[in-house]
Prior knowledge:
- The complex is a heterodimer.
- Helix content of chain A is 43%, strand content 18%.
- The radius of gyration of chain A is 37 Å and the shape is elongated.
- The relative contact order of chain A is 0.12.
- The C terminus of chain A is likely disordered.
- Chain B starts with 10 loop residues before the first strand and ends with a helix.
- Chains A and B meet through helix 1, helix 2 and helix 3 of A and helix 2, helix 3 and strand 5 of B.
Amino acid sequence: MFRRKRTTEDFADEIQAHIELEAEELRREGLSEENARIQARRTFGNVRAAQERFYLHIRWEWLDRLVRDLKFGFRSLLESPGFTITAILTLALGMGANTAVFSVMNSVMLRSLPIADAGRVVYFRMSNPPRGTGTIDSTETFSYPVYDALRKPTGAMSAVIAYVPLSSNKVGVRYGAEPEEAEGDMVSGSFFSGLGVKLQRGHGFAEQDEKDHAPILVISNDYWTRRFARNPDVLGTTLYVNGIGITIVGIAAEGFQGLETGKSTDFWIPLQNRPELNAWATLWKTARRTWRIRPGGACG
Amino acid sequence: MSTRESTDDRIALLQGTLDLLILKSLVFGPCHGQGIARAIQAQSEDVFLVEHGSLYVALQRLEEKDWIRARWGLSENNRKARFYSLTEMGREQLLEKTSQWRRLTRAVGLILDAQSEEA
């Protein structure tokens, strides 16, 4: 298999040498210089065809050896099934484990959020916070006053975004007469604008909506597809969340499913103060996670 | 020279016989392709027409089987040429193929003679 292959150039040289030798012999036999050369070429026949045959031959030889080596390999494997099974299992487990680990890593760590300039978005977390700063999880959640203090303009962050899941799982919603469940977040007014998430239809929230606790709602592209069959007329209609009628005003861009990896949020509403919608009292306990964007600054 | 006579009298080589003739022509020492072609033609009293393209493919094949080996050298009149020589394996093959050939021709001859007697 690893024998050094003869080059086609070497073969061409050999043919050239042959023709010269032949011509010389013909000259010795009495032909003129020119006739000898012509005659030598003619007796050789088609030089190109010969070269082509040589080329095809060495190609075929290579393939032939490869096929023989493969056959030998398979035979050897069949002769020692124990070894074969061990080898196959080792490879299979190795590949399987790596694929599984990569799939998880890809979705958790590598897949960036479908938002503008995702590299500049950071996740707030406190180290050694004073007691009472956070809510349910003191390092990753913030009470509303803390959030309010954080979002005061400092120049370091262009926007601070807060979001609060309406429930740890799903909330009851109703559209028309059919009750069902969906995953929803209450978010700060800066949510869509701060993250740079575009709305494919309608509009997002403004700071005022947060202050007014406006009863408006943005649904995700997936939810729009799944629940409303991408009907554009859904804008302006009412979705009841925990019995509260809220108007659908926008549909988020395709691919945006909220900020939590591995979860897909169906809809967003501005921060609310009604007890049915996770009132302020509850919010104080569960206001979670803020993000910030610092254009021009390195992320620490 | 009579070597340039019409090709009609010549016989194309049988499949497989070219290998045998090449091996045989190398028994007396290393030779280049042109010399081998000439030798086969001359020793067959110009009956065999060696197609040169096939000759070189055959030489390559024999080289790959390690029956012959090749080395670039100079011809008696100082020309560069690739010289072929028999290997030990080549010698053994020559003996075997020669005896095979003898048996074949004898058998064919027997049949042909028998037919000619009947005819």
